[in-house]
Design goal:
The complex is a heterodimer.
Chain A lengths: L16 H30 L10 H54 L1 E2 L9 E2 L3 H7 L2 H32 L5 H13 L2 H12 L6 H8 L11 H30 L2 H9 L4 H28 L4 H6 L11 H12 L2 H30 L4
Antiparallel strand pairs in A: 1-2
Chain B lengths: L10 H38 L4 H5 L14 H6 L11 H37 L9 H10 L5 H15 L5 H25 L4 H8 L4 H30 L2 H6 L7 H10 L5 H21 L1 H9 L5
Helix pairs in contact in B: 1-12, 4-7, 4-9, 5-7, 7-9, 8-9, 9-13, 11-12
The chains are: A mainly alpha, B mainly alpha.
């Protein structure tokens, strides 16, 4: 976004000093209240003195008060400039308080042994969680599975592109096909895991098992072997998310000027060549956006796995999320689970940064 | 009358038409094939909810042709015509979960659209500077929340909510859902506002409106379709969310997906009642998908084309 599209307004604010002081007093006053409450609660949590707090709610309310005061004070102190800040400030405060703070808190948890069901509470245990993680074959297996699941996106992309191309041609009942193709995306993964995973793939009566028997597969078992189970999960996930890529690619296709494809036809390019040499290069930026977003969603894959296989057989279908979910459910150890999640986050950030750099190079101007 | 055709198709014309027809058959063949793949599971679920045990085992598919539809599945949910008036604990449970899901999804989507639209508007119109961060950095900060996997936040939130007595409350869930859809809303709305020329506000301000006045009276009506698209997309995502709901809620505020999942887990649950439950869970979104398809596609296409 260039600066040219910004609004340039010159305002002549004349804010009286008393108003400025009121604004500052509001912010600092509420901040002081929040700090005092937080400190008092911390003292109680440490067991030094009892103030009679039941929960940490008072500090939360004080924080909300401070956030409101901060927003209001923007207008009081900075006038017109403050009114502009007010557009972004609420969202920024919301995101910061709900991600940065829990993430920092998570870092503390990650280096401690904390079993929520035991009365001992949190115990700092240094790098013990990292050592345990290093020696946990199931975690590395889950990470490897994520690589396999992500590789499946290539095939999903090919199918989605094909469907988008078909929808972009002159066809009848285009609206019907578009709605039909979109529907899988609307369904909740939990419902899908019953509809497809548990009933349609049921080995005796499921319609897909009957179909498999018709094609000569004697005892269809879609979750029997590790490879088959992984493939089945991939197919189910692809089923729900292909519409997503398809729609993004369709939007990209519709944005290509008709003149370009017509010109290539005049120059003698037939179907296949016109696709590879005109359509596909033009679609490259959209494709990369779609694939990147799809990878992000794929890395969150969990619902289907939790509900259909719960990681089985032998961890073959485990995703990192479902693994941590079970780790918490079975042992309610918050510390170890958080450490695994943090390491996963580091992997994701490094991986996505590399991918985005690559993507920028791929779509950037050729020299 | 003579059978002499005045205009004859030459051989090349006929081959062209053949090719065209073959092409059409292949295209429609693939389209119909994929439509069946997309629709069959939905059809199977809905039809199974009207089946009885023998129908399921013998693989009957078409109602009235090879099986007689029965209200068995819906009866177990308390939603069949003859049980709709009677007391039913399952139905009460279902209605409670349904209302929980509705409230959570609606409130969090509304909140996300409000916060996200304001932020996106500000970022598309004014230049900010906060410490070292300029507009692009702030945008990136918001959008980068998208790559944060839910599992990273889940356990810290579990502990925090426990301390704040927010565990198993709708408000706690709403906050998290708002957070998770906010980047998507900002993504869509940024695109939307960038397409509106700044001359509009400039004219409004010359006429004496303030920044916020111009936003509410001039820009908001124009950007409304984009906001609806963002809202619908958020609604779909929050309605279907399972992971946080399964972790952070237990009895009071758990949502429909949690109920469906807990039913699937229990052994010996009959197919028809499970199918009825699944149908009831997916039906609202199927209706939304069919009726508001235009907005959903608009929302998802927003980021694709720059």
């Amino acid at each position: 976004m260039s600066n040219g599209s910004h609004l340039h307004i010159v305002t002549n604010d004349d804010i009286p000093a008393s108003r400025k002081q009121l604004g500052r007093a509001l912010v600092w006053g509420s901040a002081g209240l929040m700090l005092a409450l937080g400190l008092a609660q911390l003292v109680q949590a440490m067991g030094w003195r009892d103030f009679g707090f039941q929960t940490w709610r008072p500090t939360l309310y004080a924080f909300c008060l401070w956030a409101t005061a901060l927003c209001w004070a923007q207008v009081l102190v900075r006038g017109e400039q403050g009114k502009r800040t007010l557009f972004v400030l609420p969202a920024a405060l919301f995101v910061v308080s709900l991600t940065i703070f829990p993430l920092l808190f998570g870092l503390i948890i990650a280096f401690s042994s904390w079993n929520l069901s035991s009365p001992d509470g949190r115990q700092f245990n240094g790098v013990a969680n990292i050592v345990q993680m290093w020696n946990d074959p199931f975690y590395w297996n889950a990470l490897l599975n994520m690589v396999w699941y992500s590789l499946a996106i290539v095939l999903e992309y090919a199918i989605a592109f094909g469907l988008a191309l078909l929808l972009n041609t002159q066809i009848r009942a285009r609206k019907f096909f578009r709605v039909a193709f979109l529907l899988p995306l609307m369904l909740s993964p939990v419902a899908v895991s019953w509809m497809v995973g548990k009933s349609m793939l049921e080995p005796r009566f499921g319609p897909l098992s009957r179909l498999a028997r018709l094609f000569g597969w004697e005892n269809p078992s879609f979750f029997g072997t590790p490879e088959m189970a992984k493939l089945t999960i991939m197919v189910m996930d692809a089923w729900t998310f292909i519409p997503f890529m398809m729609i993004m690619l369709l939007a990209g296709l519709q944005a290509i000027p008709k003149e370009l494809t017509e010109a290539s036809r005049v120059d003698g390019a037939t179907g296949w060549r016109s696709f590879w040499e005109v359509t596909f290069p033009l679609m490259l930026p959209v494709s990369i956006t779609a694939i990147l977003i799809r990878i992000i969603f794929k890395l969150k894959l969990a619902d289907i796995v939790i509900n259909v296989t719960s990681g089985g057989p032998g961890g073959a279908t485990d995703t990192v999320t479902s693994f941590i979910f079970r780790e918490y459910r079975d042992r309610s150890n918050v510390g170890y689970g958080t450490m695994l999640a943090m390491v996963y986050l580091v992997f994701i950030i490094v991986g996505m940064t590399i991918l985005m750099k690559l993507a920028a190079r791929l779509t950037g101007p050729r020299t | 009358m003579t059978d002499i055709a005045i205009f004859k198709d030459s051989a090349s014309d006929r081959s062209f038409r053949m090719k065209w027809t073959a092409n059409r058959i292949v295209v429609y063949g693939i389209l119909i094939f994929w439509a069946v793949i997309c629709l069959f599971p939905i059809y199977w679920t809905i039809s199974t909810s009207f089946k009885m045990a023998p129908n399921v085992m013998q693989g009957h598919m078409v109602p009235w042709v090879d099986f007689q539809p029965k209200w068995l599945g819906w009866k177990s949910l308390g939603l069949s015509p003859d049980t709709i008036g009677a007391e039913s604990t399952v139905r009460d449970e279902f209605v409670k979960r349904f209302i929980n899901s509705t409230i959570t999804a609606l409130v969090s989507s509304t909140l996300a659209v409000i916060l996200g639209s304001l932020a996106a508007y500000g970022l598309s119109r004014f230049s900010y500077k906060f410490l070292w961060m300029r507009n692009d950095d702030i945008s990136f900060f918001f959008l980068s929340q998208l790559i944060l996997p839910p599992v990273v936040l889940a356990l810290p939130f579990l502990v925090l909510y426990k301390e704040l007595a927010l565990l198993d409350t709708t408000i706690g869930l709403i906050l998290l859902y708002t957070l998770s859809v906010l980047p998507i809303v900002i993504w869509i709305m940024r695109d939307q506002f960038a397409g509106i020329p700044t001359e509009l506000e400039e004219a409004a301000m010359v006429d004496g409106l303030g920044v916020w006045g111009a936003f509410f009276t001039i820009i908001l009506p124009i950007a409304l379709p984009g906001m609806v698209a963002a809202f619908i997309l958020s609604l779909v995502l929050t309605w279907n969310e399972y992971f946080f709901a399964a972790l952070l809620t237990s009895t009071h505020s758990n949502t429909l997906p949690v109920m469906v999942a807990s039913q699937t887990g229990s052994q010996g649950i009959s197919w028809w009642s499970m199918a009825a439950l699944s149908t009831a869970a997916i039906l609202p979104l199927i209706i939304i998908g069919v009726v508001l398809e235009r907005f959903i596609i608009k929302g998802m296409a927003a980021g694709a084309v720059k």
